Sequence to fold (442 residues):
Amino acid sequence: MDKPNVVIILTDDQGYADLGCMGSKELKTPHLDSLAENGIKFNSMYSASPVCSPSRAALLTGRYPGNAGVRAILAGHRRASGLTPEVPTLATALKKEGYVTGLCGKWHLGLKDECRPNSNGFDEFSGFLAGCLDYYSHIFYYGMADGGSDPTHDLWENGDEVYANGEYLTERITGKSVDFIKRHKDEPFFLFVSYNAPHYPMHAPEKYINRFPDLPWDRRIMAAMLSAVDDGVGEITETLKNLGLFDNTIIYFQSDNGPSRESRNWLDGTADPYYGGTTGKFTGHKFSLFEGGIRVPALLSWGDKVPRKAVDTPHIATDIFPTVLEACGGKPGEYSIDGKSLIPLINGMDDCAHEYLFWEMEEQTAVRYKDYKLVLNGRLTENDGVRAPVWLSDLSKDVGEKTNLANEKPALCESLKSAALEWRKGIEDRWEREFADNYALT
Fold:
């Protein structure tokens, strides 16, 4: 059999429940829903971080963010450091297997030359380097209001700055992705389609807004932005089908983290938290290590090579690197990674769950062990105080993490706390040895 093509599709700040197949009755996402219906829908897929840069680093490297050298939201100025070639990406690994590699959309893993996509395995790059853009002018405004930085234009074709004023960024990312597929249809390719929607600023053309006339205004814009993404997924899958490539293309989709509550989402001059994104039954949002910040919608399609099923076993985005590499003929064991290949799951054998899953975000640390989840110094959003120094939940009975079992199960609590802190110490020690000096300009 020919080597499979690979398309990874990532959205930005999309909540777990903001997809039709994940339970939304308000949004219209037929193309993503179709991929879920005909492939694997992960009900318990986790991002490796509740914010974007570390989440993306983990997905692309198969490592926990701290082991990849990216533990925080990276700066957007052109001296900003981030991911470096010393940490191989999936693009780097697949190039060794004969793949042409491309990224269309958001990078947010550094702007210094050695941190850019073309220095980290991608043959082609069309998109932007910072964390968020105006969807029409493609200018990075973040930090301007408080004097933190001047606005910067941020649209690129490889190393060349380009201008496309007025072109809606979601549609541009889709168009560039379709063009990449058509140009490389006769060779194995890896395409990373990295949408910045529905990250703020909340911009959408009228044709998408008009699809949701009955929703509240903030929710209506969120629905419109995701509808544009779903149309893009439809264009990409239709292109693959028309070229006879769909059945031998691995398509993986997820959001990078939970939805944002930041007031800057909604530019109405108030400090009211944003309510456009939803986590469904989960507690917490972006930045939080409670479920709403890290459990994300995720789907895997590969023609008739994957079972049609919903998977409840917990998995994490670091698993995608070894899964894809193994499917494409590579050897994950040659790389230093934290993820586990999902090929046994794809082949219908026993599931391949981790015994423990870990997370860290500033002062927060969390661990999941079987059905139990422990969060240390957990916060619900970036602006909230610590909810409790120690919070223990049984997710089989309390997926919303409403009841703290720390006092009821002190032995289990202490065991999980010890495991979490030991893991965190390993992250901190490696950070100081290998990565801390790289962050002078972030």
About this structure: The domain at 356-439 is CATH 3.30.1120.10 (Arylsulfatase, C-terminal domain). The longest helix spans residues 217-242. The radius of gyration is 20 Å. DSSP finds eleven helices and 17 strands in the chain.
